Fold:
Amino acid sequence: MTEEERNPQGNAPSPEASAQESTPPAQTETAEEREVVEDLAAAEDIAESEVAEDLGTAAVKGPAFDQDEGQVQTDTERNRRKERVGLVVSDVSDKTVTVTVETLIRHKKYKKRVRRTKKFMVHDEANAARVGDTVRIIETRPLSKRKRWRLANVISRAE
Structure:
């Protein structure tokens, strides 16, 4: 378009109009902004690539509802509760047993295997476990001040 077609009355174009026309909208981005856009596009490509799928970082779906995040959670995430096998050392309390779990760890400096023992207060709904039984326990929600585990099953009975 010529100036006469844009302004048929012959008036001089305003400086604002000429400034807007001289800079096309595509050139308003700076070099830094273009780099950021390119980096974001590259990151999206990496996330969608086969490498991300091989690493198991693909999106997960599932029916369980995560109360903390308000998002859907898979069954495998929900079932990743800690399990321990230990020995019942006390069954005095009603619906509660005390289980000792032994673990072997390697000493940082001397590299020797050291036996560590920890006691857990375990919820036993049916009062099935007795002193001396070997049991499997599963982590659960807090049931009291010290009880965060529940009895899964009795592996072997005391002799």
About this structure: The domain at 82-156 is CATH 2.40.50.140 (OB fold (Dihydrolipoamide Acetyltransferase, E2P)). The CA atoms of residues 69 and 78 lie 13 Å apart.
